[in-house]
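Reminder to self: tokens first, then the designed residues, so the page reads top to bottom the way the pipeline ran.
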């Protein structure tokens, strides 16, 4: 009987040890999977950080190319080969770290009217600037943004406000001063209407109706290279400029954003008003994205969209040829 009891006791102890060993193994497996998952996530975060750096290198290269040559590059070769003794793009930025197949980027173009071709998020440079500067959404009003309001509207609004302050009269109890002879109320005391507000509303309505073209497979006839984006349609860990997938991470050089930041940082020339030469005020329905015409912004194929007029010669003076 003693031998049988001892055998049973040893069997129970062996069972407990086996269960304890299995429990420890399960804990170790779960812990190793968690560590592995954290390592994979951290690796993706590092690749996302590298992707942002490489994409912004393209933005920087396009900006430098434009400022050096006076026009946009037509192909990525213009950035990679550069000019004699001058390179615009680092070799480290050539490949997309998220595209493990071949590392190629998706290219985004712009035409002479300021339309973005190849983007899945933006239709024009002006729409892009307004969305990027307002958290990925179009603002409720364009006042103060320096974008979308014609210069003539700003000038007339400024003159109207100044005249209203100069000609304002103190209110009296005489009803004849507030009513016309026919008994109708005279609303002129309220001051002139602000045309900039109507322009803002119409510009926002027009911008809201514009839709992006979507990704393109090859070069665009009449287009100029303005940015790159990823081909990978996969949910990202971080959010970049409102983009929640790698395909929505678009790295586009937008001169309107540069000038809008200058406005916000108080870097505008003293006394300058939006709409003057060099400060693009855009019409969202065409060439009004700061390109060409009287907008004063840069032209994709030239050094600028605004020419400085020369003073007329005085009587008896021959104009310069």
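Designed residues (321 positions):
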């Amino acid at each position: 009987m003693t031998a049988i009891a001892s055998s049973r006791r040893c069997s129970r102890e062996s069972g407990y040890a086996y269960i304890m060993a299995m429990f420890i193994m399960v804990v170790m497996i779960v812990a190793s999977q968690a560590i592995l998952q954290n390592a994979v996530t951290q690796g993706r975060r590092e690749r996302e950080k590298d992707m942002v750096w490489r994409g912004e290198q393209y933005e920087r290269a396009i900006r430098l190319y434009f400022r050096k040559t006076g026009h946009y590059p037509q192909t990525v070769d213009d950035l990679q080969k550069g000019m004699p003794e001058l390179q615009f793009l680092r070799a480290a930025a050539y490949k997309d770290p998220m595209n493990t197949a071949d590392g190629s980027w998706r290219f985004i173009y712009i035409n002479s009217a300021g339309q973005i071709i190849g983007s899945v998020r933006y239709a024009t440079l002006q729409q892009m600037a307004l969305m990027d500067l307002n958290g990925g959404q179009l603002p409720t009003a364009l006042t103060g943004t320096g974008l979308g309001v014609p210069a003539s509207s700003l000038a007339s609004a400024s003159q109207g406000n100044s005249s209203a302050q100069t000609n304002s009269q103190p209110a009296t109890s005489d009803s004849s001063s507030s009513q016309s002879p026919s008994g109708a109320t005279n609303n002129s005391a309220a001051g002139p209407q602000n045309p900039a507000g109507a322009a803002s509303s119409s510009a926002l309505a027009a911008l809201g109706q514009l839709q992006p073209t979507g990704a393109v497979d090859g070069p665009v006839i009449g287009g100029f290279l303005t940015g790159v984006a990823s081909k990978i349609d996969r949910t990202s860990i971080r959010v970049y400029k409102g983009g929640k997938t790698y395909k929505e991470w678009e790295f586009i050089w937008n001169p309107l954003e540069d000038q809008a930041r200058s406005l916000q940082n108080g870097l505008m020339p003293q006394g300058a008003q939006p709409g003057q030469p060099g400060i693009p005020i855009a019409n969202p329905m065409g060439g009004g994205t700061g390109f060409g015409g009287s907008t004063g912004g840069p032209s994709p194929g030239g050094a600028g969209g605004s020419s400085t007029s020369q003073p007329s010669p005085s009587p008896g003076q021959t104009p310069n040829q």
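The two ends are 126 Å apart (CA to CA).
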